[in-house]
Amino acid sequence: MKSYEVIRQAVEEPGVKAVAADLKVSAALIYKWCEAPADELDPDQSGAKNPLDRVREMYQITKDVRLIRWLCNEAEGFFLPNPKLTDTGDLDKAFYLETRRVVRDFSELLDKVTDSAEDHSVDAAEADAIRQKWEDLKSSVERFVILCEQGQFRLEKNEK
Known about the structure:
Helix content: 55-70%
Shape: extended
Number of helices: 7
Radius of gyration: 22 Å
Structural class: mainly alpha
Number of domains: 2
Order of helices and strands: HHHHHHH
Distance between the termini: 51 Å
């Protein structure tokens, strides 16, 4: 689905005018965000790049997953990248590497919590650091589970 289609569907229920008023922008701008670019090869042609395209572009430039995580958190969810198994050619090694990643991320989370709690309080910066480590751990464990479900670590028994 294209970004302008997502925006078009999202503003349908509350209405373009209501969304525009809440965002303190013109209804014309919202309508512009809901339109397909005249030239798909030049999405900037309309002069009104929509917010979804801008966030995507920021992510592509920075490669900072915190942008996406923040949006997902605002939607009461979390970001989970699609798992990519590095083809080591050795399932035992791949299983070991994925297991090691989960243990490492869990250890880093525990370290962050321990460091933060040493003074019997957790400030906003420490809470944010704990959140980032928690997001890393959730992603690692989910990746591991998905790979297991896909049979990535299922070894065939040698039949004699």
